[in-house]
Design goal:
single chain; 159 residues; alpha+beta; 3 helices; 16% helix
Length: 159
């Protein structure tokens, strides 16, 4: 008997996560991005991270084609970016401040940090694939993290 998908979502919603925008450059130099909290550090040697992407998502084919991605870790003040990149359809970067990473993936300005990665493997995982990236560049930023818990954005409580 399969585990109830709604219950799984509710339980995992109790796991507080950071919020990122994963970006890539793909065919003909086009760029795109998606909001993601299904990211993880995988290995320090070699330096590897994973982004989990639904097989039916537009981002899936863009990552496969682009062979690179950047994980942009959002600050509390960047909730609007999370909402913007969570919607389906083409992504407009024209009014955003960003630069090309070493891989060509867009690096968003003002984040808590970013990891610029070349794609090294795609592993199947149910209705998602795990895109394993080798980190080739990164940088720390400053600010308070944007958190997601129980289906809502949250902040770290002041002590």
């Amino acid at each position: 008997m399969a585990f109830d998908a709604r219950l799984q979502r509710d339980i995992m919603g109790r796991f507080a996560t950071g919020v990122t925008v994963v970006t890539t450059r793909y065919k003909n130099g086009d760029i795109t991005g998606m909001t993601a909290n299904a990211v993880m550090s995988l290995s320090l040697d070699p330096p590897l991270v994973v982004v989990s992407v639904d097989k039916s998502a537009t981002m899936h084919s863009a990552l496969s084609d682009g062979q690179c991605y950047a994980i942009n870790i959002l600050t509390r003040e960047q909730e609007h970016l999370s909402n913007r990149f969570a919607t389906p359809g083409p992504k407009d970067f024209s009014d955003l401040k960003w630069r090309d990473g070493k891989t060509g993936a867009p690096i968003l300005d003002g984040t808590l940090g970013y990891l610029d990665c070349k794609l090294v493997n795609i592993l199947p995982a149910g209705d998602h694939d795990m895109f394993v990236g080798e980190i080739i560049d990164g940088e720390l930023g400053a600010g308070e993290p944007l958190l997601f818990y129980g289906g809502q954005y949250r902040s770290i409580a002041e002590e």
